[in-house]
Amino acid sequence: MTDKNLERKEKTRETVRRGYSDIAESKDGCCCGSSLPDRLAGAIGYTDEELESLPDGVNMGLSCGNPTAIANLKHGQAVLDLGSGGGFDVFIAARKVGPKSKVIGVDMTPEMISKARAGIPEFTKKTGLSNVEFRLGEIEHLPVADSSVDVVISNCVINLSPDKQQVWNEIARVLKPGGKACISDLALKQPLPKEILASAAALVSCVAGAVLVDETVEMVNKAGLCDIRLDEKSYSIDVLADCNDPLYRQVKEFLPQGAKLGDYIISVNITAFKKKP
Question: Which end of the chain has fewer CB atoms at under 10 Å, N or C?
Fold first, then answer.
């Protein structure tokens, strides 16, 4: 890899890190205003019961799917959440797998890790569970042992990575044989206008990093995962279209007149398995 490519990738990581640091430390503690996070979560399929058990402030409206639902989590499974943010999906998954297992969240933003860890006492008080852990690290270089995880989940995060193939390689490395990846992310229906691709706001809001569905399937295959299943959704993009957050306002300004985010972007649920020996 050339020095220029390395520099570009690190610049992308730093842009994302700064953007999510700002979100973690914002007054509202969320991406899209005080009312949208619950509305978005409900549209995606999270239940009121799941949301009520969460620590205050961890639902920041950063989801584009519901990986804990498509994973059909069972008691006793070890779960890893890539780009766990404030711990939204980690805390929900922890209730599903029960006290005898562990859910680990990995995030590269120290402010998000601090926010997530600060929510653990409240979560334990509400649920009686103490089965979550948050680790600082990059999803391209996971601080997790080989073949140690039953399920990998991620929610609107892999698009943020400048090296998506390496992320999928890491997913394959940490999964146990027979384990599965259940990923919610954004994908392109058609190429984005070049003005959006150059926008830092579009990158932080997951839009500029989106790739075509076929490219994602190619990366999953190349990582050695199998039995790939894709389910395309449009619901979250319709919700985000009403978002008043500055990130999405800036993105919409670059769209052609009369165009909507949903004309370019779709939410995709991806499930793939690690082969058994």
Answer: C
